[in-house]
Each structure stands twice: as structure tokens, then as C-alpha cells.
Design goal:
With 276 residues, the protein is an alpha/beta fold. It contains twelve helices and eleven strands. The protein has two domains: 214 residues, 2-enoyl-CoA Hydratase, Chain A, domain 1; 47 residues, Lyase 2-enoyl-coa Hydratase, Chain  A, domain 2, CATH 1.10.12.
């Protein structure tokens, strides 16, 4: 039974015998919405939340009916990052926790053939900011901030934050932001290329859902190949990029969606893509 069928079969948040307490899953057609539901703790990540995300993302990536995934959070804070009480009292090896419990979440998003869109309200701090930035697309409320607060705890950035910042801010600005643990407001994030859009708070969820709906109507094979290509192209030479584009283009060329797009062009109508 797919996650689609599981979500339709029960009103409780139980998927494949996985009781969900830290996240909510809602599926509407080809769109899956994940919501962090630990607002009393500012949606800080504890072991249970990490495991629930791993389990749900595995099911999402196995479900071919889902095309786009939306990530939101309850309350006034997207995520305060790691649960510091757990970190202080229950963690003996932070390296192992990052590699064994967090990394599968981030890799599931980056390797997925779905498009992930994060909608950030309030503060996204620490690895919570890293999670938002790991999504393919990011929309921030106008009052939202990304807060790399690691230095305040005597820690370095994690969750791929250093990689994200250096790619978008450059070495010097990334160093400054991380050394001084500066919160970056939504408009600055837009200027730096850390977010795609900034909207008013009350428009955050409608804007994210509208974007997800639009993308879910697009040509899935081309979207999947584009995500794969753009994640690798900056490591390629121009020649290698040209070859990779040609190879992926051939796969798109043989898809039903290309045939539909071509017919729609000549018939002067909007295409009705099937995702095949």
C-alpha cells in the first residue's frame, strides 16, 4: 500500500504502522504536505522527529503518484534547530548523530525525483535552516530569518550549511555570517539567493501550495532530469555539461510528455502532461 493509500485509509497519522507525533502528512492528488508539529518546542529536532522524517520521506520517494512535496511548520517558528536538551543529556557522539540520523533526511530530499518546496515562517535556526535550504525551492515569509547560531554554542555549521553559504554568499560573507552568528532576514536571503521568494506571512502557505500545484502539472521526466543535472553541473567542464544535457535531452525526447508538449504547441493550447 502506497503512502497515498495509507493517508486515505486513516484519519490518524499512522503510515505502515509508523505512528506520527512530530510531523503531519497530508496528501492531495500529486502533492504531499509535510508539517513539523512540535510548536511547543519550537519544532526543535529530537530523535523521534528525525526518525519520523526518515520513514515518511522513504515512503514518499517510493510513491510514483506524488510529484511535489511541501514542507511547512506549525507555530511561530519554522525550527529552532537541534533539541539542545537532548543534545546535552542524551547525545554521546554528535558526529554519529549527524551522519546516521540527519544525513538520511537530507540525502532523501536531494536524491528524490520529487520537487521539494519549503515554506519558512519565523526563525529557521541551526540545522532547521539547513533543512529548509536543502529543499529544491524555498519561500520565506517577510518576517522569517535564517539563523546560523552555531558559534553561540561553540559549534561549526552542520547539515550542509557551510556548503550552502559558501556557494551563495562566497567565502568572506559566509565566514562573517557564521563567525558572528548573524540572523539573515528574508529580504537579504532573497538578495543572496538563499530563497526564491518572499511573501507576506498570511500568504506563505497559499503561495507554497500554489507553486506546488503549478509544478505538479508540469512534465515530470524533464523536472526530474533538470534537478539531477543542476545538482552536478557546477562540478563539470563545459564539454561534460554539454554531453550530460544531450543525454538527458534524449530521455526527455522519448517521453510522452514531450509528445504532448509538441502537440499542444502546434494546436496552440496548454499541454496536459501525464508525468510519463
Amino acid at each position: 500500500m502506497s503512502i497515498h493509500e495509507q493517508a486515505s485509509a486513516t484519519k490518524k497519522q499512522v503510515l505502515f504502522n509508523i505512528p506520527l507525533q512530530m510531523i503531519d502528512v497530508a496528501i492531495s492528488g500529486p502533492i504531499c504536505q509535510l508539517t513539523l508539529t512540535r510548536p511547543a518546542c519550537l519544532n526543535a529536532f529530537n530523535q523521534q522527529m528525525r526518525q519520523e522524517l526518515v520513514d515518511v520521506l522513504t515512503l514518499i520517494n517510493e510513491d510514483q503518484q506524488i510529484k511535489t512535496v511541501v514542507l511547512l511548520a506549525q507555530g511561530n517558528c519554522f525550527s529552532a534547530g537541534a533539541d539542545l536538551s537532548e543534545l546535552a543529556n542524551e547525545c554521546d557522539n554528535l558526529e554519529a548523530q549527524l551522519l546516521e540520523e540527519y544525513a538520511p533526511i537530507f540525502h532523501s530530499i536531494r536524491r528524490s525525483d520529487k520537487i521539494f518546496i519549503a515554506g519558512v515562517n519565523g526563525v529557521a535556526a541551526g540545522i532547521g535552516a539547513a533543512l529548509a535550504m536543502s529543499c529544491d525551492l524555498l519561500v520565506m515569509a517577510d518576517d522569517a530569518r535564517l539563523y546560523p547560531a552555531f558559534m553561540l554554542l561553540g559549534l561549526v555549521p552542520d547539515g550542509g550549511t557551510s556548503w550552502q553559504f559558501v556557494k551563495r554568499l562566497g567565502y568572506r560573507k559566509a565566514l562573517e555570517v557564521c563567525l558572528e552568528a548573524k540572523a539573515i532576514d528574508a529580504n537579504d536571503c532573497l538578495g543572496f539567493g538563499l530563497t526564491n521568494k518572499v511573501v507576506e506571512l498570511e500568504q506563505l502557505q497559499p503561495a507554497v501550495n500554489a507553486w506546488a500545484t503549478k509544478l505538479a502539472q508540469g512534465p515530470l521526466p524533464a523536472q526530474r532530469h533538470l534537478k539531477q543535472l543542476l545538482q552536478k553541473v557546477d562540478q563539470m567542464t563545459f564539454k561534460d555539461a554539454f554531453v550530460a544535457e544531450a543525454q538527458l535531452q534524449q530521455q526527455c525526447f522519448t517521453s510522452r510528455d514531450f509528445n504532448e508538449g509538441l502537440r499542444a504547441f502546434f494546436e496552440k493550447r496548454q499541454p496536459n502532461f501525464s508525468g510519463k
